[in-house]
Amino acid sequence: MIYQATAAAIVDAASLLRRGDLVAFPTETVYGLGADATNATAVATIFAVKQRPAFDPLIVHVDSLARADNVVRGLQGAALRLAERYWPGPLTLVLPRRGEIPDIVTAGLATVGVRLPAHPTARALIAATDRPIAAPSANPFGYISPTSAAHVAAQLGDAVPCILDGGPCAIGLESTIVSFAAARPALLRSGAITLEELQSLLGAIDVATDAPLPTAPGQLPRHYAPRTPLTLIDSVDEVAFDARAHAALLMAAPQAGTAGFAHVEALTPDGDLLVAATRLFAALREIDACGFARIYAVRVPERGIGRAIMDRLRRAGA
Q1: What is the pairing mode between strands 59-61 and 133-134?
Q2: Which CATH class is domain 2-207?
Q3: What is the pLDDT of residue 211?
Q4: 77 CB contacts (<8 Å, ≥6 apart)?
């Protein structure tokens, strides 16, 4: 059931979490499906509800640097500089885990991803629960991430006792993930904090490739995917006119030559990729519900947040 994220509703939601139930809650990135990160049985319910494979680790959410220090070891040096610069915000740091985090959260790995979200509802919920909260996106595994409470209710329904409605997500793409598990930091997932920003602060940083056994969320080849097949294109000219009648076209900004498509969706009027990112998942959901034969998505430049948009589109079409 959806509840407006009032102070009273947050207290009630925290009580549910402490007794081992699930709560969906807003962050600035996407809506999360949360459980007490120290309760292995509660975390197992996340995997069951999402039908998420046990080898895919979760991110642990905290409300302060002090609580993060209870979750991970080694929050110092370059990792601490990133935390001080971008927390609260859309950044997840992968660091060696502490003992209170059970194996099910980390898929048995010695590391865990930790994040201090910027959304006030998320931080208030963690503070009221007085425990770290493990939370992947609040949707069936592999499907488009939710950016509103209504998206969560439509997909997970009665499987979640409480959905806190904190409005639409301001960013709309999952957090940037940086790992400090090796000698040099590595970008594991692109997000609103861009590779260029990370390089300016850290200098050299590796960019990880996909792995059959992920060390953080969002590393599987197919993810964030609609049920409708999605094909990436460089130009609308690549799509034959007779293939357009039962297809949708998704692009960052309006352009010429789109006649014949059953539906045309421009994410922004002017191609602002920050705005396009906030609308991407919601637009994909709306298109996916229409029953088209295919979605054609026009590529965007892979720089800044465009790299994160293309990461999501590429996985959606894998």
Answers
A1: antiparallel
A2: alpha beta
A3: 66
A4: none
Domain over 230-316 is classified CATH 3.40.50.11030: yes
Beta strands in the chain (DSSP E): 2-4, 23-25, 32-36, 59-61, 91-96, 111-115, 133-134, 162-165, 176-179, 186-189, 206-207, 230-233, 247-251, 263-266, 294-298
CB 230 within 8 A of CB 295: yes
Nearest to 78, CA basis, from 91, 63, 59: 91
**3-state class of 239 per DSSP?**
coil
282 touches 190 (CB < 8 A):
no
d(CA 186, CA 120): 29
State the pLDDT at residue 222: 83
Question: Rounded distance, CA 13 to CA 308, Å?
Answer: 32
* Whole-prediction pTM: 0.94
Q: What is the dihedral of CA 126, 113, 189, 29, to 10 degrees?
A: 0
What per-residue confidence (pLDDT) applies to 216?
80
Q: Find tokens 């940086």 and name the residue.
A: 178
pLDDT tens per residue, range 195-237: 999 999 999 899 987 766 788 888 878 888 999 999 999 999 9
Give the integer Cα–Cα distance in Å for 173 and 244: 28
pLDDT of residue 137: 97
List the chain domain ranges: 2-207, 230-316
CA–CA dist 215, 8 (Å, integer): 37
- Which residue is listed with tokens 């050299």? 204
pLDDT of residue 217: 84
Same fold, 2-207 and 230-316: no
- The list of the chain residues with pLDDT below 70 reads 211-212
* Cα atoms in the Cβ-side hemisphere of radius 13 Å centred on 144: 26
Q: What tokens were used for 277?
A: 């990112």
Specify the pairing of strand 186-189 against strand 176-179. Answer: antiparallel
